[in-house]
Automatic annotation (TrEMBL), chain A:
<dbReference type="Pfam" id="PF10932">
    <property type="entry name" value="DUF2783"/>
</dbReference>
<dbReference type="InterPro" id="IPR021233">
    <property type="entry name" value="DUF2783"/>
</dbReference>
<protein>
    <recommendedName>
        <fullName>DUF2783 domain-containing protein</fullName>
    </recommendedName>
</protein>
TrEMBL record, chain B:
<dbReference type="GO" id="GO:0016709">
    <property type="term" value="F:oxidoreductase activity, acting on paired donors, with incorporation or reduction of molecular oxygen, NAD(P)H as one donor, and incorporation of one atom of oxygen"/>
</dbReference>
<keyword id="KW-0274">FAD</keyword>
<dbReference type="InterPro" id="IPR050641">
    <property type="entry name" value="RIFMO-like"/>
</dbReference>
<dbReference type="Pfam" id="PF01494">
    <property type="entry name" value="FAD_binding_3"/>
</dbReference>
<keyword id="KW-0285">Flavoprotein</keyword>
<dbReference type="InterPro" id="IPR036188">
    <property type="entry name" value="FAD/NAD-bd_sf"/>
</dbReference>
<dbReference type="GO" id="GO:0071949">
    <property type="term" value="F:FAD binding"/>
</dbReference>
<feature type="domain" description="FAD-binding">
    <location>
        <begin position="30"/>
        <end position="371"/>
    </location>
</feature>
<protein>
    <submittedName>
        <fullName>3-(3-hydroxy-phenyl)propionate hydroxylase</fullName>
    </submittedName>
</protein>
Amino acid sequence: MSALVTSRNIAIPDEAYDLLLTAHEGLTKDESDALNARLILTLFNHVGDLDVIREAIEVARQ
Amino acid sequence: MLDDRYALAHRLYPYERAADQDAEVAAHHPVVVIGGGPIGMAMALDLALRGVRTLVLDDHEGVGEGSRAICFAKRTLEICDRLGCADAMVDKGVVWNLGKVFHGEDLVFEFNLLPEGGHRHPAFINLQQPYFEKFLVDRIRQAQAEGAPIEIRGKNRVESLDVRDDGAGIEIMTPEGPYSITADWVLACDGAGSPTRRGLGLGFEGKVFKDSFLIADVRMKVDFPVERRFWFEPPFREAGDSALLHKQPDDIWRIDFQIGWDVDRDAELKEDRIRARIDQMLPGVEYEIVWTSIYTFQCRRMESFRHGRVLFVGDSAHQVSPFGARGANGGVQDSDNLAWKLAMVLNDEAPEALIDTYDAERCYATDENIRNSTRSTDFITPKSEISRVFRNAVLHLSRRHDFARPFVNSGRLSVPCIYDGSPLNGADSLPGGPAQTRPGAPCPDAPLEDGFLLHRLGTGFVLLAIGQEPPDTSGLRSVSIATPNAETRARYLVAADRALYLIRPDQHVAARWETATPVEIEAALNRATGKEMA
Ligand SMILES: Cc1cc2nc3c(=O)[nH]c(=O)nc-3n(C[C@H](O)[C@H](O)[C@H](O)COP(=O)(O)OP(=O)(O)OC[C@H]3O[C@@H](n4cnc5c(N)ncnc54)[C@H](O)[C@@H]3O)c2cc1C
């Protein structure tokens, strides 16, 4: 059984996506990379579960 | 012909002509240790204390000057305590608990090793490696005086080995010319560059890190607190990409600068260059430079530590980057693992197959050490642009958010390995017992009414009975704790009311039960001594 949620899980996807783009607005490439990295690590901690993280990395790599 | 490769800090075993050099037929020795570094000396001491006649051959006449290792972990001290030399080390060493991590100007966070109470030894001491080695040799001299069968021959360089099925012939060079001896067992403790390993054409594969560190031990009188300070991207930027400041005995401080891969070693080792870096780090401080060196680092190991009757122990078998202090600390655990096994085999108390478990258990432990050192190194010296981005993201988050701090890796503590899956492990039949003392685990210390548990366990197989009378097992020593205190409960019982632990001579757990019959204990003892493997 998959530990990662791969079914639709966000009520207002456009809103979430917009949050992401807005956060990056006006940033240089380096600043954006750094922001992404901090975001990933923060979400990592929220998830907490190594199996979920492993599966998410697999999805991202496909 | 026999020039020193390094200067000596202590000339402890000057060359003396040995009777073997005048023998008509090559003299025979049960065990020969090649190399008198910290691991060779610990190995020889442990064997001799177990009654095994042991000869150490070292190509120098004493302990080298360069400090190298400074951090010695609790487990090492516990092993040295069993060998009888931990007190000298702890008395001389600097005990430290506090570490501070900076990124640029800012303190990112601090950690306290706060050793939990009820252990005889501190989590870590800092002590220059030459002192560590000297205390081992001092103890060897004392053991010799008490009759332990141990001999050290300085300026005896092993030139070649002629390996046979039942031992080896050894060619030795001395200031007075060559001679040869034979041995049943050869322990190659001849360091990372191991001539023995090269002579046998054995591989040493692994990962080389493309960075180098300038290391300087300086003497200065300052009232800095006794803490480990580590900077990522320090504010004294020209000094290095990372830096470390750490206290040693005798007002000596260890300073490390990460200076990059493509450096001109000779130029960087010039005193004015080194002073330029240190002056940036410690403006206005007066100091004297005691020892400097530039090192690069590898994480690698031999595929197998056993080649017939030749066994590789310490740096000759494996090398790790210094972050996390797993080199000498790991090597002392190799020695701890091998000594009792070899002694039992030589005394016909166990089959030779027991020696294969040295290879199995210590390769497993080495992989853990390599994994940890590699991860620290990857964090400290990011090897790609994206790994630097993540590293700095961790440091950035850590200033304000505690959740990110565990990701910060400026070197993880050296902790002993739990030999999960070892062929020597027996029953684990203690429902509710703590994971930290499962079979394969090193016994944690605990305070007793009159001393400490590890001390009481002694140096041979022992049955630890907690909350019950030990069953009558002839020939097996037992230690019993009728009413365990809080520490013993937490470390050995937790939810269980009583327990029996069968403990190996290296103080790792062999098997545990709520209670057991003499037959069950006997079976576990047979397993732990390799009798099921033969
Ligand atoms: C900068 C630095 C910092 C370190 N810090 C730490 C730390 O904080 N904690 C830690 O645990 N470890 C640390 N280490 C690692 C530690 O120094 C080594 O793991 C340790 O010295 C290994 O001991 P050894 O006895 O296996 O080998 P070595 O110390 O290399 O000893 C080998 C011995 O064999 C002798 N020899 C070689 N060839 C022959 C021959 N042909 N015949 C006879 N004798 C021979 C040599 O002269 C030497 O005496 C550090 C290393 C470095 C470089």
